[in-house]
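Hi F.,

I've been meaning to write this up properly since the lab meeting, where we talked about keeping a consistent format for the predictions we share between groups. The idea is simple: the sequence comes first, exactly as it goes in, then the structure tokens exactly as they come out, then a line or two of notes. No screenshots and no reformatting. I'm using this chain as the first example so we have something concrete to point to.
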Amino acid sequence: MRWLVNWLLSALSLIIVAHVVPGFHVSGFKSALIAAIVIGLVNATLGLLLKIITFPLAILTLGIFWLIVNALMLELASAMVPGFEVNGFFAAFLGSIVLSLVNMLLRAIAGTDRKSESD
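Output, unedited:
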């Protein structure tokens, strides 16, 4: 059940970000649901590999380089999902930051954040 709620919250986060960040577009809730799955899969596979490889660079930049990796993962996901479009690196970079913040906020409000899982 928690997985389903997190998936719906991720899709809702994508729609919110599409309204806030210029160059970040989601055509509808169905596209947002598909994009949320693809973003999760891309981050769990290629994103994880890139974060491991770029770990020394992330240490040197105090973790800021991982924002670039997240932006690249968003651009890759947008290339795979029809109805989900990210126009340019700046939109992906800003979108990844806003998406993380909105997702964190929605999960905290819904009570599905990671801290509540251990309670």
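Notes:
The chain has six helices and two strands.
The chain has a mean pLDDT of 89.

If this format works for you, I'll send the rest the same way.

G.
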